[in-house]
Amino acid sequence: MDSVDLNVLRSVLEWRRAGQRVMLYSVVQTWGTAPRAPGAMLALREDGVVIGSVSGGCVEDDLIARLHDGRIPADGPPVQLITYGVTREEAARFGLPCGGTLRLTEERVGDPAWVAQLLARCEAHEIVARELNLTTGDVVLQAASKTDALVFDGQTLRAIYGPRWRLLLIGAGQLSRYVAEMARLLDFEVLICDPRTEFVYGWEEQHGRFVPGMPDEAVLTIQTDERTAIVALTHDPRLDDMALLTALDSKAFYVGALGSRINSQKRRDNLAQLGLSQQAIERLHGPIGLHIGSHTPAEIALSLLAEIVAIKNGIELKQKKPLQEGV
Hints:
Elements: H1 3-17, E1 22-31, E2 41-45, E3 50-52, H2 58-68, E4 79-84, H3 88-93, E5 101-108, H4 113-123, E6 128-133, E7 139-143, E8 151-152, E9 156-161, E10 166-170, H5 174-185, E11 189-193, E12 209-210, H6 215-221, E13 228-232, H7 237-247, E14 254-257, H8 261-273, H9 278-281, E15 284-285, H10 297-312
Helix pairs in contact: 1-4, 5-10, 6-7
């Protein structure tokens, strides 16, 4: 779940608590090429204000028009299906490429208790399934796993919601600043740990949240899970290796450390001498990043995040760099 979807649900909760009527739209099926994937959401307030998106813009315009021209009656069903792009002409009208088709649920949000509960569980880093009965409008929340996916059978929509992806940076040096800025643009929640007070100057709160303590303590403090990436960037083995000893035995989906191929091998040998299992050591990404000929801190940050995003998205790495560049 990204911050856009979280903001949609936060707005739904705020609007309903203020007594305003809200329609929640969710993409449930697509055919051909569609602008948004199943699960994307949009909320429409009674005065026409919207947050979120389900297409490139034209479908959003029609949803607002439905509100103003009476196609959303006050006494209508709790949930109904809307389909856009059945014909090539309609697909072109609504900006759906290649004759794509988009199917949405149009849901009247009543009691927002389920919204508050879902948001709270996501903030607690739980993965949650929301089951919506299209006949009654009833919503049931259940525990889910990272392998679960959206399911729609025409009668029930089971959508999966989870916390934002997180990136813990060990070290607050220059490279970390570039990584943090790019990671935020990619919708990662950025966490930073650096016990060296000399490196803290110049970091603003919007760049990321500092986790106090030593690196190994930070890995434990944030309750590392399958949606967390950890990268050691201090170039100081006394700090980096402390974090790695804990991170490589955690559930983090990515653990990496800055360094050349030679230094990365030395680090692996050192971790083995410190008692880390070979299985855990094999999880270490080092050198970090994809091979793009990077030299500057910004290029190295781009290389690193390209690798992290690829692994997050389940893409096989085919462009791994042979050695760490620019360091």
